[in-house]
Q: What sequence folds into this?
């Protein structure tokens, strides 16, 4: 199993990080959640499904297969300059939001 976070949907609540701190983390400085494992260990599959179902903005997507999907987990990539600018624009639209401190 793999899991990905849509970084444009994430509302930076930190709920997934509190639930599974070894699987999710919040990026500084904006608090957007990232996945910090390439694959989810079997023992955590149920917990990851629960975290995905509890995300208030449905930003967490579970990929049941470990292979055959060309999506990459958010931990695999660093944000491009264009992505960073989109996040900065999002932050400007949401002043006073979560500061992302972990
Ligand atoms: S629970 Fe959802 S909205 Fe909250 S930090 Fe995690 S991915 Fe983002």
A:
């Amino acid at each position: 199993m793999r899991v990905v976070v849509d970084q444009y949907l994430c509302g930076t609540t930190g709920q997934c990080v509190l639930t599974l701190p070894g699987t999710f983390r919040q990026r500084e400085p904006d608090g957007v959640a990232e996945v910090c494992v390439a694959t989810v260990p079997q023992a955590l599959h149920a917990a990851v499904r629960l975290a995905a179902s509890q995300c208030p903005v449905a930003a967490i997507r579970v990929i049941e297969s470990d292979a055959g999907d060309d999506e990459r987990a958010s931990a695999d990539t660093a944000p491009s300059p264009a992505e960073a600018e989109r996040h900065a624009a999002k932050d400007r639209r949401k002043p006073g939001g979560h500061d992302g401190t972990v």
